Amino acid sequence: MKKFTFLLLQFLFIQFTAKAQDTIPVIFHIVHSGQSVGTGSNLAQARLVSQLQILNADYAGTGYGSVNAPSVWHPANTQIVFMPALYDPQGNLLVEPGIDRINYVSKGWQNPGSFSNTSMFMNYIDNTLKHQGNWPPSLYCNIWVTDAGSSVNLMGWGSLPSNSGLPWATPAWNNADTLSSGIWIWNNVVGNTGSTSNPYNLGRTATHETGHWLGLMHPVIGCPTDSSYCADLPHIRSGTTSSYMACNSTFPDTAHSCPLDTNGTMFMNFMNTYICSDTDIYMFTTCQGNAMRQALHTSPQRSPLLSSNVYRLHTNSVQQLSEIKFEIYPNPATDKLIINAATTAYSLRITDVLGKLVYAEKNLSGKKEIATSGWMPGVYMVYIQAGEKTHTAKVLKQ
Ligand SMILES: [Zn+2]
């Protein structure tokens, strides 16, 4: 029966594989005690940008170390993309895309670093922070980033998706509280810049926990003849070591695998236990990628995200500008922004969403190219003055 279910699932996976990529809007809730941005647990924007880049590379199968995969295994391109939210739930543009900074003192929340008991800490995150601070889980993937006491002994966890249809999901998954949907990551292991905690300094904790959030389990421990979990992820022989497997082993690692898995354990899989260093894990399997997409399309706690527009820039500037024949492109911009006026003389001002001037020039005509590679990612306002008229456009820098 399990085998039949598995074959049916493989068929379903093919349907999902045929579709275009899926985009998940992300909001990082950065919990701090009033430190300035970039200090302590109030992580710098660059660090969260690096975390999103890591997630996208890892889910595309192109992250750090992926070229080292043994030729028998192929890091999956899951076709899942993580994008920073541009809007809060009230529709306001975020000053920093994908980032919500929260002073726990002003919220009346206990210091997250003050807990010494793991279950009390998890209860506090789930039932205080997420319940009071989660943005609608139907529109955002909520990632909570806080400090934690050393005796809590956790680097992250992700809530499991309800009713995913994945054959390894247990009935308990369906009881998952939607309001506490999301992921928690210890601030010291976020991203790959700043004071990350070696050897968890490549942002792989978030890669692993989003895997759980999308329905993945750790590799199966034990050598049964049948299992519903991904057939392309080798089992681990039980009782081989205290951690059941080796990290950074030499292929093939048959010392920890089951007799039929002649290629050994997949010691570089993202869903291995957290004890493997970030440099040592660099792939999902094809089945894992397809399973995550199934959960994303099927679970009622995940599928609404596929129609969330909070990561798209809402703009009506094109119409306004077309009246006086201005073009602004590309939008979103990466390394340059081009303003093109067919005939009109104009002046140009560009500010960030807080109004801080980042560029100004007068007496322009025709095409103007502006280097944007040094700009922080975010939304910028472009003000064009031509004669008596001023026009405004929003531009996204990625
Ligand atoms: Zn895990």
In words, what does this structure look like?
The chain has 398 residues and is α/β, with parallel strands linked by helices. It folds into two domains: 306 residues, 3-Layer(aba) Sandwich (Collagenase (Catalytic Domain)); 81 residues, Immunoglobulin-like (Sandwich). It is built from seven helices and eleven strands. Strands 1, 2, 3, 4, 5 and 6 form a six-stranded mixed beta sheet that branches. Strands 7, 8, 9, 10 and 11 form a five-stranded antiparallel beta sheet that branches. β10 and β11 form a beta hairpin. The longest helix is centred in the first third of the chain and has 16 residues. It is globular. It starts with a helix and ends with a strand. Bound molecules: zinc ion.
Query: What's the number of structural domains?
Result: 2
Ligand inventory reads: zinc ion
CATH level 1 name of the largest domain: Alpha Beta
Order of helices and strands: HEHEEHHEEEHHHEEEEE
Per CATH, which architecture of the largest domain? 3-Layer(aba) Sandwich
Roughly what fraction of the amino acids lie in strands? 15-25%
Mean pLDDT, to the nearest integer, reads 89
Q: What is the number of helical segments per DSSP (H or I, 4+ residues)?
A: 7
What's the total number of strands?
A: 11
* Oligomeric state of this protein: single chain
Q: In angstroms, what is the radius of gyration?
A: 23 Å
Q: Give the helix/strand class.
A: alpha/beta
As for the CATH topology of the largest domain, it is Collagenase (Catalytic Domain)
Distance between the termini: 48 Å
